[in-house]
């Protein structure tokens, strides 16, 4: 059933199939009380492309209004990986992970690696602006150590607390 109402709106009841390219001008609003499913069967990269090309203020936004769970917005790859890549912004926060009122939890079954190629005294910074920092190897066995190695440079440990044990090394092997 295909109708055009008095204001020029088109109403389609039932399925719509388009062979070839579908081109339109103006806003496209897809609203449904049920699932909206975009599926591509193309075996090539990219299979689905969301592309903004409108100017320097453009943005692509994935937004969940009412989801309250930890997976309210979820990216899932069943057998491959997930890559976040920024190629044009030479900034300290070219990729920015921000949790305004919560934490950030990173879990890994294999190696978790932080690497920086910046040639600077502050190539990697771990900072707590309030509270402490713990480095733990809570499930480690003998030989699975915490290593701090500075090849060609120094290891500096500084404390500004006015306490007898401001810097404290303790080995309790028996």
Please give a structural write-up.
With 174 residues, the chain is low in regular secondary structure. It is 0% helix and 3% strand. Strands 1-2 form a two-stranded antiparallel sheet. Strand 1 (2-4) and strand 2 form a beta hairpin. The termini are far apart. 0% of the residues are buried.
How is the largest sheet built, in terms of strand order?
1-2
Strand elements, count: 2
SSE string: EE
- Give the distance, in angstroms, between the N- and C-terminal Cα atoms: 83 Å
Please report which band the strand proportion falls in: under 5%, 5-15%, 15-25%, 25-35%, 35-45% or over 45%.
under 5%
Number of contiguous helices: 0
- Proportion of helical residues: under 10%
| Poorly predicted sequence stretches spanning 5 or more consecutive residues | none
Tell me the Rg in angstroms: 26 Å
Shape: elongated
Q: Describe the biggest sheet?
A: 2 strands, antiparallel
Mean pLDDT: 90
Category from helices, strands and their pairing: little secondary structure
Layout of strands and helices, then pairs:
Layout: E1 2-4, E2 10-12
Antiparallel strand pairs: 1-2
In short:
The chain is built from no helices and two strands. The chain has strands spanning 2-4, 10-12.
Notable characteristics:
single chain; 174 residues; little secondary structure; 2 strands
């Amino acid at each position: 059933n295909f109708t055009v109402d008095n204001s020029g709106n088109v109403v389609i009841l039932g399925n719509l199939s388009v062979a070839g390219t579908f081109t339109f001008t103006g806003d496209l609003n897809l609203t449904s009380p049920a699932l909206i499913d975009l599926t591509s069967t193309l075996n090539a990269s990219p299979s689905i492309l969301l592309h903004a090309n409108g100017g320097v203020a453009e943005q692509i936004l994935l937004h969940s209004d009412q989801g309250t769970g930890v997976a309210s917005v979820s990216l899932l790859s069943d057998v491959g990986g997930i890559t976040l890549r920024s190629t044009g912004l030479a900034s300290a926060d070219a990729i920015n992970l921000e949790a305004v009122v919560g934490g950030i939890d990173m879990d890994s079954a294999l190696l978790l690696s932080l690497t920086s190629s910046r040639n600077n005294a502050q190539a990697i910074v771990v900072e707590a602006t309030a509270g402490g920092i713990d480095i733990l190897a809570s499930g480690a066995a003998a030989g699975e150590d915490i290593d701090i190695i500075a090849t060609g440079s120094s290891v500096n440990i500084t404390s500004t607390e006015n306490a007898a044990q401001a810097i404290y090394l303790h080995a309790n092997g028996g």
